[in-house]
Every structure is written in C-alpha cells, then in structure tokens.
Amino acid sequence: MIDNPINVKQRTESIAVVDQNNYEDLRLRIEELEGVVRFMKDVIKLSLHCNKKVCLDNLPLPLQQEILAEMESDKEKELVLKLIQRRKFDKDWYSLPEKWKHDVAIACAYFDIQHRGVKHRRMPGNYIFPEDPQRFLHLRSLPYSLRINKEVILCALRTSKGASWEDVHARFRNDIDIIATAVANEKLKFEKVPLEIVQSREEIALYGVKNDLISADVCPCLTHQILKDNIENGVLDWYQLPQTVRDNMEFAMAIEFDKVEGKKRIYEQLFEHFEELRHDKMFWWRWHESLCPKEKDREFPFTSLFEKYCPADLLADENFVTEFCAEYASLYKVIADQPFATSRHFLQTALNQNPGVLQYLSYQTQIDNLDLVLTAIHGLGTTPVGKPGKYVYAAAKCLAPKLWKKRLVAMAWVKAGHRFPRHALSDHRLNAWMANRQLCLASAINSESMYCIYNFSDDIAFMRQVVTQCPKLYLEAGDEASSDPVVMTIAFAGLSDLASKTMDTLHFDGHDDKIQSYLSFLNSKLELYDTFVSCVLGNMLSNQSIENTGSSLTLLNQGHETSIVYKRLLADYLGIPTGKWLCQLLQARANVTQAIAPFDFTHVSTDIYCKCPMERDDVLTSPLKKGFVPKQCQGIQDCE
497 to each of 376, 473, 491, 501, 528, how far by Cα in Å? Predict the structure, then answer.
C-alpha cells in the first residue's frame, strides 16, 4: 500500500531537521514528493474540469480542502495570466501576491513580455516594463522551485536582462536545450560549448556558422534542407555553406529566390562563385521574376549587378537588353556605349515600352529624335513600371536645354498632364511659360491644377474655359473670377458637391446676399425659358388650345421638321437659352436649390423651379424631346 504523500512529506521534513549534513539531498527529496502531490492534484482537478466522476472522500481531508481551494484560485490565476499577456496588468512581478510568485506560467509570462517589451522598446512607465532596471524580473530573484524549472530558465535566458549563464542551476548546465538557448542569446560563449554538442544541435551549429566561429563542413546536423532554408531567410551567406554544397549547381538552382531575403546579396555571391551563371539568360530572368514590385521599382539592385556581372556577349544582345530596358529604365546607361543604343529602332522600342529611358538619353540623341521624345513625354505619366509618373521629375531635369526653348516641346509637356517643371527651367523661361495664355490653359486643363498659373486665376474668360473642362478648379479661381455668375454656373453644373460646398461656405460666412444675387441671376436667365415652356409649349397640350387645329400658333402645326424649326426660331427670337448653356443653367439651379434647402433663412427667395424640364408634368413628350429640350440634363453635356 502506498503511503499518503502528505505523511511522507511530514516524516521527511522531521528527518531533515535532525540530519543537517544531508540537507540539500533531503530538500530535493521533499521537492520531488511535493511534485508528486502537485501531480495528484492536477490529475484530480483536470478530471473534475472534464466532468469526470472523482470521489474526494478517499483522499485525506487536508488534500480535499487544498484541491477545492486551488480550483478557485486557478480561475483567478487564469484571469491574471491573460491580463499579463495582454500587457494590461498593473503590477510587476515583485508586487504580486505571494501565492502567484511560485507559479511557472506567470513567471514565464513576465519573462516573455519583458523580452518582447525590450526588443520592441516599449514605452517607459509601463508597470510590466518599469523604468527602474532593478524592477526587471531576474531568474535569481525567483523562488528556488522556479529557479530549477527548465521552462522558466529557458524563458529567462531569452531576455536581455533576465538571466546570465551563472544564474543557471548546475544541474541544467549540461542540458542541450538550455545550452542552445544560452548560446543563441549570447549568454554563453560559443567556445565553451563542447564540440560534440555543437555538431549535434542545429541551433548551436547555425549560430557558430553564421558568426564564422565554426565551419559548416564539420557540422553534420546541418542538412541540405536546413542550409537551403537558412540561405532563403538570409541567415547564412553562400561562402558559409559546406564546400560540397557550395559547389553544387543543383543546390543553387533549387533555391526559391522569391522567398530569399536580401536577394541582391545572394545573387552577387552566386555570380562570384559560379561564373557560368553570368552567361545564363534564363538565370537573369529568374532573378527579375523573383523580385516583388517594390524591389523592381527601386531598380538599383538589379541594375548595379547587371552592370557588374553581365558579360559583354549579353550586353551586345539587342533583344535581350531591350526586354530588360522595358522593366528597368536605368539599364540604358549600362548599355549606352553599345552600337545599337542610339539606333532609331532600338530607341523607338525602348521608349515605347518604358518612357523612363528618356532621362538617360544624351542631349544630342534627344535632339536627333525629337518625335520620339515628344511621344515619350506623353507616356511618362502613365508608365506601367512602378508608380505612375515616377520618371517625370527626372526626365524634366535631364531633358536637353535646347528642347525647352521649343514651343512644341513645352505644349507637349503640359498637354501630357505634367505641371510646369520649375526645377528644370531657368527663371526667365519659367516666367515666359507663366505669361503664355495657351500654355497655362493647356496645363490647367490637362493637369487639373492651377500650379504656377496664378497670373490667370482672376481672368474670367480664362476661368470659364478652365471650369468647363475641370469644374473643381473653381476653388482655385481668384476673387473676381469666382464671383462671376457664368463661371459659377458652369462649375456648379459640373459638380453638385462643389455647389453644396460653396453654398455652405457663403451661408456660414454670413454672405446670404451673395446666394440671393446668384439665384436672381439664374432666375433672370431661365425666366423666359420657364415662360416659354409653360405658356407656349404647355398650352399645346391643354384642352382649350388643342382641338382640330393643334396649337393656336399655326406655324407650329406644319409638320414635324417645320415645327422644330419654328420652335427654334421663336426661342432664338425671344433670347431663350438653348443647348449646352441651357443644360448648365438648369443643372446649376437644381444643384444650388438642393444645397440651400436646409438653410434657415427667410430673406432669400427659393421659389424657383428645381427640376429639369423633362421631369416636369407640363413639358411635351413629343416632339420636344427631339427638339431643344434635353432628355436629361447631366452636368455640362450638350443637350442638342
């Protein structure tokens, strides 16, 4: 029959008091027996937690009470543990209640958080990461039962300040897991590790090879797969591999280069070690295809190695080079001295595929191929490589100064949607551009910006043309142009949000009178139209005016085509707006009316039509739909 563990513990403790010479051995025996008791408790608690039938009556009463009390304490501990792991607990380890200072999980959680906190430089003042270094948790500060726990030791060794090798208990100093962790975290010098352990443990061997402390040739634990993985994740360099692996071309080709971190470094090492790879076109393409878009966008890693390692026979291959120039514009400077580099066929192909090549052409080449330069200028903003427009700034800087003197080039530049290249133009030439009405108009419309065009921002006629194409530029108009009702109408018809924003600004700035003035303008322009639709065309549908003769205006009853002509003549004679201008007036009125509807003011009259003609009940459906009244009034579309 097995003794009650509690009785065994009591007897052992009494012996320990008598026999002081064997204190250490007896203490270890006590701890082992305590472990047995803890194991029994854990099994019973786990069974209860899983709803298994467990009879506590067969256990000693003190053990029953301990188990029930610990089950309640475990629930509290789980909550505290979660708070610690989430960095939401307001106490460091030293401030914990005594009952939790002997818990393995809580100690490991503090070490883990402390390790991550120092690694990521958590903010000072956090309770878990105190400013006072003395408040950091140290292995030597833990109770003895935790200092001889392997899991706790491993967690402590992973932190920068949690433990030193001297803090590790003697019984664990030959444990391979602990040695490996200590070496990896620089708590134990590599030279002090026995060679047989180094050769048998991957972590220790990798540490030594990575830091050039041992040759991979004497580490059989480093298999081909381990070496391949560590080449791909950037831990090892090619020269650190075993000689047999280093010279193995099949091993080199098996590397998944799209997974490699620091691709430039490993490719450079491969080109150095395998000279035949420099002549392999497919290997160059394999490198290109392994690059992510961000790496391709930088260009330098590829271009620098291409310049350093690409052999003369490949540099002289026009087709090979052309394909790469389509991806890397900077590659042109590497092959600029090749005979085909200035040929029209090559330039046309290269510039069509990648307009960024323009920035690397010599001034004379640009001047000799002006038509290709103009085509490339238009393509700079939409280059498919990397970010749109990434070559615009550099191309402007590298364009031949003589070309900037040509009006043709200047107009091509702004029509391509590029802003004025202030960094590339002399002051007097920039001033000439800014004073040229046609250049400024083309720039504003195509770039959708008034950058460097402030000379014309108050020119009403200029701004009317601008907002017709780009309504949002109304916000950049000068005071005089922005107050012009025609400019306002064109802009508000084009963007309802713009009308709403402008009306809000005027209203909350206390300029309701300006809103009323603009509404009066709209009413005055549309008054004749509303009257014509209501009184003339509307009467054609009424019972009083339509009998056998149709309209009371007999000229309107002469047939479909004749009717339309006379309606137009009558509208022109009365000065009624028609076509696009009518559509803009109607759309602006609808947008403004909708924008001011929520405003709380009474002195502004809003008694105006807010619908397009074809949405109203008093408009003819035919033949006016085919006449001057639009089917739909959408923005500034032509209604005719």
Answer: 36, 13, 10, 6, 28
Instruction: Give CB contacts under 8 A, 24+ apart, made by 495-499.
Output: 495/471, 495/635, 496/591, 496/594, 496/595, 498/471, 498/472, 498/474, 499/588, 499/591, 499/592, 499/594, 499/595
The distance from CA 543 to its chain's CA centroid, rounded to whole angstroms, is 67
Cβ neighbours, 10 Å, residue 226: 17
Assess whether pLDDT exceeds 70 at residue 9.
Answer: no
- Quick: pLDDT tens for 212-245: 888 999 989 999 999 999 998 888 999 999 999 9
Residue 77: which pLDDT band, with cuts at 50, 70 and 90? low
Please name the helix (run of DSSP H) or strand (run of DSSP E) that holds residue 85, with its range, or none.
helix 61-85
Q: Which residue has the tokens 């490198």?
A: 287
| Omega of the bond leading into 623 within 30 degrees of 0 (cis) | yes
Backbone angles phi, psi at 572, to 5 degrees: -65, -40
Between 176-184 and 150-158, two packed helices, what is the crossing angle to 10 degrees?
Answer: 10
Contact 453, 444 (CB under 8 A): yes
Length of the chain, in residues: 640
- Phi-psi map region of 510: left, alpha, beta (phi>0 left; psi -120 to 50 alpha): left
pTM score of the predicted model: 0.62
Burial classification of residue 41, based on how many CB atoms lie within 10 Å of its CB (0-12 exposed, 13-18 middle, 19 or more buried):
middle
Round to whole Å and give the CA distance between 356 and 348: 12
Contact indicator for 487, 463 with CB cutoff of 8 Å: yes
- Tell me the pLDDT tens digit for each residue of 532-574: 887 766 665 554 444 444 555 555 555 555 566 777 787 788 7
Please tell me the chain's helix, strand, coil percentages from 3-state DSSP, rounded to the nearest 5: 65, 0, 35
Environment class of residue 354 by beta-carbon count within 10 Å: exposed (0-12), middle (13-18) or buried (19+)?
buried
- For residue 141, what are its two tokens? 């500060």
E strands within 98-176? none
d(CA 330, CA 317): 17
Query: What 3 state SS string does 21-80 have?
Result: HHHHHHHHHHHHHHHHHHHHHHHHHHHHHCCCCCCHHHCCHHHHHHHHHHHHHHHHHHHH
Please state the domain extents for the chain: 1-86, 206-465, 472-545+552-626
**Residue pointed to by tokens 């935790």:** 146
pLDDT score, position 235: 87
What is the dihedral sign for C-alpha 564, 569, 570, 572?
A: positive
CB atoms within 10 A of CB 343: 12
**Whole-angstrom Cα distance, residue 211 to residue 258?**
25
| Residue among 366, 335, 339 nearest 351 (CA) | 366
Q: Give the pLDDT band (50/70/90) at residue 318.
A: very high
CA–CA dist 311, 298 (Å, integer): 23
- Give the DSSP per-residue string, 481-496: HHT-HHHHHHHHHH-H
Q: Judge whether 532 and 574 are in contact, CB under 8 Å.
A: yes
- Residue 633 belongs to what H/E stretch? none
Whole-number Cα distances in Å, 144 to 151, 169, 240, 397: 14, 10, 42, 72
Asked whether the CA dihedral 141, 144, 150, 151 is positive or negative, the reply is negative
